[in-house]
Amino acid sequence: MKHAGFVVRALLASVVTVAPVAVVESLAGVSHAAGGVYYVAPNGSDSAAGTQSAPWASVAHAESVAGAGDTVYLRGGTYRFTHANKACASQTDRVDAVTLNKSGTSGSPIRYWAYPGEKPVFDFSPMTDDCRIKGFDVTGSYIYLRGLEVKGVPQNNNLNHESWGIWISGSSNTFELINTHNNSGPGLFIQDGGGNLVLNSDSHDNYDARSSSGAGTNADGFGAHISANHPGNVFRGCRSWWNSDDGFDLINAFSPVTIENSWAWRNGYVPETTTGAGDGNGFKAGGYGGGYVSNGVKHTVRLSVAFNNRAAGFYANHHTVANDFFNNTSYANHPDYNMLGVSPSGAAIALGNLRNNVAYGGTLLSNETGANDANNSWNTGVTMSDSQFQSVSTSGWDAARRADGTLPALPYLRLAANSTLINRGVNVGLPYQGSAPDLGAFEAA
Ligand SMILES: [Ca+2]
Ligand SMILES: [Ca+2]
Ligand SMILES: [Ca+2]
């Protein structure tokens, strides 16, 4: 194809009219409406036309042209960054490699999508800026990133806490099929905003070796730390592994967050080693710095798996209200579930609503007495053993995703055909097979 943008627009418009489903449609449910189509490539030029045959070079230039409903296709190859888009004002300043501050509209996001079948790699490791760095700083709303690899955001001095792979403060954005790794800080960090969807994305091997708070203490795979009145942030189908701090972290989140169908393993270590680093929880579901706050909110973690994390698989982290933990599987964590909460008087109490969860291996439970728990593997009288599962292998979980971007179908920690965990759960409003929900993250067919 060598169409000018308007020709492609016309083509898409006609296709939409004739056969709406024939046009690319994402898992996030946003169909590819008629809009401008532009191209960016590593060997492009910002003075070119932005067409497929004459692509631009930078996302920044594409953003200056693209508007609501438009699609910017990022061709495969490596986009290498050596400096931010402004100078550091001080050694503790924050700068961006890529700033996305132009918003789409509801139903008509601005899309920055990998060209089908190709992998655009944003390599920030050559950056030399002497302050904190955000690889992508998404301050706008209704922006849709899909299929990008984001890696190597550095810390170039030891005066700060973490840098960040992708930082988000806007709302109603979608991040799909993102692979963010080897950053000196969290892979994807929602600082504020509501209604953001992080879908079928991976974050791994992030490690903030030069943080002033201690090496490795801040690099979570994914996090949301939003202010009040920003509900609707969701992590779905995501994997987080070998990050030096936590897999998923919701500390200081003052609006409810949902994490579902997601996996976390081997967090809390220097990546690819068994050397301990940061906190090491698979799912850290809240907390407000250890003390009580009166405006804490309930988060939901469900249908998710944690294993081999250095600390807890699922952790309440001194949360102030009982979170919902439904149909999770926790294996060989320390402990598998820790429901440490805090009362209005500041006392340590057990807080959590737990149903249909599995704990196996590791040290099982902490701060469970007094939590609202029922129909979990530890209070249904079942005998836990390896034979409850098809496999308890802890390798291979980073296998390639299915063609539609969803998590790979693996036998690991799925219930054996004769498992006594089948149909031992209670209806919590999630789909199930047979007479009742099963225990754990994977419902037997
Ligand atoms: Ca930490
Ligand atoms: Ca953390
Ligand atoms: Ca069932």
Automatic annotation (TrEMBL):
Ranges for domain Pel9A-like right handed beta-helix region: 30-341
The keyword Signal is assigned to this record: yes
Record's keyword terms, sorted: Calcium, Lyase, Metal-binding, Secreted, Signal
Localization per record: Secreted
MF term (GO), any: carbon-oxygen lyase activity, acting on polysaccharides
Record's GO cellular component terms: extracellular region
Cofactor(s) needed for function: Ca(2+)
Main subcellular location: secreted
Top-rank taxon: Bacteria
Family membership: Belongs to the polysaccharide lyase 9 family.
Protein name from the UniProt record: Pectate lyase
